[in-house]
């Protein structure tokens, strides 16, 4: 059971005829980010947001604010907040597993928000049996539940000592990849270019370690705030240099360490030892053929002019 954080949701996890109490805890949060308030420069006071009528420009108090769906330019169907609330299905506080699917079939483009799923009070044995069974079978679970006032599809996977539940985007919310990539040129890279790309990838292989990811923007904001508090000069942003190689093959060779940075490179493929030997053999054969075709100095001596 997670400690130090308040559960976002509590209910039951059901698979088959087995159920156990569970709790959802936020796995990712932006609460640690630096945030700013809007301030009145003249007074130094914080600015409050006020809703203004778009036509009369008069302030609209909260009790007069409602929802509306635009059906035409400037024409709205008024929908009261109570009517919106009535459309929310009643929650039975149950994550009902619909199916188990191979982990490899999950396309993470549908991932929305991750939550840690832990056993809550009773039902630890059933929870652990499900977790270990999913690990052994290398499967994920598709479940449905009313979470945060909406019916949501949730992907459940083993994660450390517990489970991780990720809310999923609906199919209509995910844009088609075909449209995104329809302007991609039809190119086929092979030969030395492909070999160099594979070599660079092999030399850059590593392990996934989120601790190495640094939020440079957040660090720069913290440095800025600190400098302002201490009355120091503002830090100068580091200049980002973007390389613009005019020759892809030359850039690949440089990245692979085959040539020094900035050195002039020949975009033609390098000659191997075998190619050099073949070239030398062809040159000797050419010289031999030329000598046979040319008239000999002994067989046709020059005559002196009379």
UniProtKB/TrEMBL annotation:
Origin: domain of life: Bacteria
Key words of the record: DNA damage, DNA recombination, DNA repair, DNA-binding
Record CDD domains: KU_like
The keyword Lipid metabolism is assigned to this record: no
InterPro entries: DNA_bd_Ku70/Ku80, Prok_Ku, SPOC-like_C_dom_sf
Domain Ku: 57-186
Stretches the record annotates as Disordered: 259-306
Pfam family name, one: Ku
Sequence ranges of Low complexity compositional bias: 278-299
Subunit structure: Homodimer. Interacts with LigD.
Family: Belongs to the prokaryotic Ku family.
Function of the molecule: With LigD forms a non-homologous end joining (NHEJ) DNA repair enzyme, which repairs dsDNA breaks with reduced fidelity. Binds linear dsDNA with 5'- and 3'- overhangs but not closed circular dsDNA nor ssDNA. Recruits and stimulates the ligase activity of LigD.
Protein name: Non-homologous end joining protein Ku
Species whose genome carries this gene: Pararhizobium capsulatum DSM 1112
